[in-house]
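To: structure desk
From: M.T.
Subject: fold request, one chain
Message: Could you run this one when you get a chance? Sequence is below, nothing fancy, just the single chain.
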Amino acid sequence: MPKYFNTTGPCFPRLHYMLPPKDRLIGASLDRYIRDELYWVLHAPRQTGKTTFLQSWMHEINAGTEAVACYVSLERCQEITERDQAMPLMVDAIQKSAKTFGLPVPEYPQQASPGSYLSVILSRWAEQVAPRKLVVLFDEVDVVSGSAMVSFLRQLRGGFAQRGVGEFPVSIALVGMRDLRDYLVTSKDGQVLNPGSPFNIKHDSATLGNFSLDDLAVLTSQHTQATGQEFTPEALDRIWACSSGQPWLVNALCEQIVYRIISDAQTAVQSEHVDQARERLIASRATHIDSLAERLKEERVRRVIQPMITGHADPTLGRSDRDVEFCLDLGLIAWQGSLVIANAIYREVIARYLSQNYQDNIPAPEFAWQRDDGTLDMDALMEEFQRFWAWNSEIWEEKADYTEAFPHLLLMAFFQRIINGGGSVDREYAAGRGRMDLLIRFNGGINLIEVKLVHPRMGKEATRDQGLVQVERYADQTSPHTCHLVIFDRRPEQRDKSWEERIGQETCTTSTGRSVEVIWC
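Reply: Done. Structure tokens follow.
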């Protein structure tokens, strides 16, 4: 049976092109967890290979004679906060997993109370598999919450002291999207409980890293060996640039290319094929992407993402902030010396998702927006956007969720509406940069747009001068045909001025002689 790039569920060696997930573990001590009888945590974003690793390691352990390992998913406990409802489901999950993987099935703890179901069944299970050690790998732990989570952790802690052959699991892994310190649980009376105290026996926390560029080469070489179809070095570089090695994105891009875009297996994969796959993937609203986009509606995510769009620095947002930790654990953002969106595809998804409703309500252009050679008439487009901004911005902003980033989102929606299907928009943004950069490619033309907000302490002229320096730096990297600096002045005192006073345009020259059209809104 031919193998393929997998985008659904765990990977299996007989079906899928895959890399050993164990090689991507960061901070794990697998050789010690069983030998020294340690409990530990594995956390990583969705669809990065956690389940693949767990099941692979389980089979590796069970092939030996020292221990018996079982993978158990607690997914069925999602949104069930009450202990008495969740514990029977956990016991059932243990029994079904043991049966699925051909392991001894522990008896149901009939005479026990729900508050001891877990500890009783684990003790009986350890006794059943003796003289081998019992290792349990609990997946999807972070879906458990409330009193169910408190009871789950406390029963594991209670058994930890007696762990050993025939007594209790010698090693337990708690696996999910978030680290254990972030399993915040709330009691019925609303009192927040310390998440560390019920499970202060954790030895360490490990995570799974993304693919490296070398990993991409190894993964795609498996397809080349099976079919003869090669990935050019430029294509691999482009896959890396789009995905930053996020495993699901890598597999999804490759799947789109070799099964949907290129019909002839003898045709080598080029960078332009990657770009086509990227657009298809974003437009498909696959579950992986859609679930991340839905997170943007949450206040704790909005608080982190909005300063990135506007480029503002927020000293309250750092890696110790719980909202930032949440976004890092989601895999939505990353730390690269500063907080940035995790990869180029997510950057595009965020921008399109947040501006989609605006785009859908912008009418089709009825003015000449292309030059005779087919490239964009940027001067006409900017003039039209200024008119649109004057007519609609104040009314539309009242209904906006991301109010601080509203100008950036509306401008992106305007240009996405114009070039939809006929070009591309590359976006660069991150907290603290003081700007957003757009690079619009259409019919061979490359147009740079930098977006800034007037800083209250700087004023218009200083903001413009800073923007011109920033345009120059970005233009050196991208070699655009046109450069525009769009500045939104949203200071309160501007509200009292007429739109004729607030909107304007001027041509400026950078220190190296580059012409930049400055658009005031």
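Reply (cont.): Residues 378-397 form the longest helix (20 residues). Let me know if you need anything else for the meeting.
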